Fold DUF2182 domain-containing protein.
Amino acid sequence: MKIKNYFSLFKRKSFMIVMKIALLVWLWLIFQNLLSMEQSIAVEFVHGEHSHHVHQTNNNENFILSAIHNTINMHWFLMLIAMMLPLLFLSVEDVQKKNFKRKRKLSLILFFIGYIFFWTLIGILLSILTHYLNELLHNQIILACLIIVVLVLWQITPYKKISLNRCHLPANINPFGLQSGIDNFKFGIKKAWYCVGACWPFMWLCIAWMEPMMYIMPLFTLFLLVEQIQPKRREIWGFQYF
């Protein structure tokens, strides 16, 4: 893909809207993190906790319920918006084109509900897996290195390329009646399914090692965006860039 084609994205209204929203959310997350760090310096850690990103379950607390609680919160949703929203501008355009003007806002809401719903289920599973590995390894650096190895290996699998190619599939939406809402919701889930296949190790790294990853999250998003808008790839083993 030529460089001028990347710059042409800035002329597309949908792309600029999602980029501005994602940037504002990311800046808010950074601000909240810096504020949390200042408070942690001013006050001693009474309970020995790092932050609300590093979750240590109590002995009497079910870690699965803890993973659900730690995933279904405002911080998770904001992180999802900051990291994944820029990848959805083509889908946003598709939903708008295939729905009547009077129903576009509702259609986009249903699409995003489906997308966030599926990603949240994956977030819970990744939180549970992170908990198990933390209990096993007792070292966040080792865990982060392990996830990076998984990330690199996943990049070379054909399943990664299959997911990237399926991200280009258009929405199949009936614009009439109740079926319109169902189709928009299903398209959100379908899009999330392929997004998960394309970039779940990146999200896992952000879940497991949130504080340092937060500052480079835009680089992840930029990499995933460039990766996703490329022409279709051969679904074989190996690196294919770009």
The two ends are 8 Å apart (CA to CA). Residues 8 and 15 are 10 Å apart (CA to CA). Residues 104-137 form the longest helix (34 residues).
